[in-house]
Predict the structure.
Amino acid sequence: MTAPAGPKLRPLISVSGVSKAYPGTQALAGVDLEVMPGEIHGIAGQNGAGKSTLVRILSGVEKPDSGRVLIDGESVTLDNPQAAQRARIMTVHQELSLVPHLSVAENIYVGELPRTTVGTVHWSKVRNQAREQLLRLGFNIDVRATVASLPIAHRQAVEIAKALTRDARVLILDEPTATLPRHDVNQLFDLLNQLKKLGLAIIYISHHFDEMYAICDRISVFRDGQRVALHDSDEKQHDAILQSMLGGISPERSAKLQVGPGDLPRLGTGRTAGEVALSVRGLRDGHDLHGVDLDLHKGEVLGIAGLSGNGQSQLAAALFGAEKSQHEHFLVNGRERRRQDPAHSIALGIGLLPEERKTQGLILGMSITRNITMASLPRFSPGYFLSKSKEHEAAVTMRDALAIKTAHVGEAVGNLSGGNQQKVALAKWLVSGVSTLIIVEPTRGVDVGAKLEIYELIRTFSDQGGSIILITSEIDEALMCDRVLILSRGRTVGTVSRSEIEQRGEAAILDRFN
Amino acid sequence: MATNTTPPPTARKPFQSLPGTITSLRTFVSSLGSKGYLLAVGAIVLLVGSALSQHFMTSRNLISVLITASVVSILAVGQYLVIVTGGIDLSVGAVAAVSSVIVGLALQQGTPWPVALLLALLTAGLIGIFNGLMIVYGGITPFIVTLAMMSIARGVAYMLQTGRQVAIEDQGFLAAFTANLGPMPAPVMIALLVTIVFAVVMAQTRFGRRLFALGGNAEAARLSGLPIKRDIIGAYCLSSLLAGLGGVMIAAQLTEGSAIIGEGYELNAIAAVVVGGASLFGGTGDPISAVLGGLIIAVILNIMDLLGIQAQPQLIVKGAVILLAVLFTSGVGNKLPGALRKVLFQQRYTGLPAHETPAGAETANQKEDANARR
């Protein structure tokens, strides 16, 4: 590998052997990263690969368990955000950290407003300096306007100007384009190129490769808490980068999943024709979805594959009616859906196993039993009153059938492990008797053993005639489906059939990304 | 232990029966759930009361405490229904005033008392539905909506009253709400009935379960197909309706409807719920505990009355009781001396010892967050 770098040899920021564990997960395992002055260094990786943890450590929000951070060759301790600021590391977060109702100038100088000799704020100085700073970045913005009144691209410029007034040497951008309209991206890139000339070291985190190839010098790929590869930022490297990011099925992982590389478990039974359970055309929501077409056959397991951040969770919410969307048609069992509302979807036999298990799928403080019966309460109250014995019976049946590890079903769901929580979330739908399940990232944050069990449960649901839409950014999971749609930037951009998957393996899907 | 038929070694029998009794007592206490500690605290308060004043443990005194506490108990039940959803209703005192004025005015017009009662309850219910609609469809937080309604309702009560006294002379009405009903005066029986009805609603019906779910995690409830908008409106309607009932009861006790009644009752009701152990973040507690919480406060105030303590220091004690209760029921309770904690909190931790829970990192963090927020 050629090592393209900035003009100087010594890295401006150097991370070595940084590890961070949370109970149950190793978020970072001995990560190294070096960024030269004047370099824009991209970081790619799936959700949960450890990117955000690294950002939190570099911005002083979290302390690493081990490892060092060097700035310009000197070791720094980043115990808190102030320490990171003193080390001149500035982070521009995905959700900007500006105060919306203060003016642009105040935001840029917040916390360190220049004073006059009598101690009052030197407003004219504040405004002039803020204006100059922004002009230097190529933005002509009224510094007296409130931040809330600015378009997002300008807010970002303000955030960057704020970082520069604090003499940032290292600038971290966490998904800077996530909320940015397309045509403003170029403006951001011009700005970054200027900062590059000033000799800043810039860390650029994104899910979008075309952006990274356009702006970055090198790309580090993260997977499972490690930096697994360092690539030149070049479109020609795309396949190699995807390969490192997704990992494919390493021998080690195959062993854990008890399957050989060519022998993936199948989630579905291969029914890809016949009656259509769900037919959707032109699904869009105005921000994240721009045209999704799909037909789900009865008994089919339809994968929707895409890299994280291409509209997955929004698609699930729109299909389930949890968020408003527009469409050309939306047929459930051949009839137009009348309302966009979870209760209506459930009545039509559709359930959603959401991505955010803890905040969307479960009530952590409630018992296992109550979570399991939550979506089918009428069934458990034949008269006026809930039948506690029926509820208990259903919960025990589910606990045994799904092997939920708990001593008693009255235990709060919050006390269970990730995998067991996911089983409870699934049990809720099995009890409710839905015939179609929309499943999003079902094995995220689930340990390897429970992963396989969850696959088996999905397979059982399919065996019994259930239809499944499996929205996933895990390539392995996509490969287990009967048929795979590719989701890119909120659109379905192609179909991969079972025979293609069997002939070409993961390449059949990877080739369709981007 | 007397029913134990297996003969233990005779020499050790006297030593075994004491721990045995304690164990069964503990089992009994833990079967009461969070009410166990309230009953324990209540028993302590009663003992202290009878030790300090010979007038305390008389049926006359206790019944007068219960009558005083009856209206706040009813308001506390209503308040609980809202708090369990994670909301709050500051308008209940003012709604009680409106309701008392309406019932008084209607009776003055010669309206039959059941009709006057319905009219007052209907008005109160509509106010609650309005609160709910503003919260659900107006997107305004419950605190603000009900704060505004507290002012509006109080104003309406004053305007209806138009400065004159609204005396109530309808004997049928007065009898219905003040005479003895069975073993106890009517207000006490009504409060008891309301408490039991809503205890059953919360524990045994779909509506109750949905309120718990809503307060536990509104998004998860919505994604499980529960009608959360309707339920929120329902909770505020019931809270207001019960406040209206409370207002009618005060009107009967005072033999007049008045715009100044119920001042500060909303805070007493909230205090009762909180002392009863419910979290203001929703999803926890039960109506009986809320009523017990209110009774404990009422008894403490009564003891101070009997001791001739002035009203001003009583306020300080009342505030201290609220703070102590919340300290006990929140995470800070963990840091109390171990012995005290073991006695009072045994049942809260059984079944979920920390080292055996395989809870993931985020669960642990969330718990910490929740504790930090309290």
Q: What stands out?
A: Residues 1-8, 249-262 of chain A have pLDDT under 50 and may be disordered. Residues 24 and 447 of chain A are 9 Å apart (CA to CA).
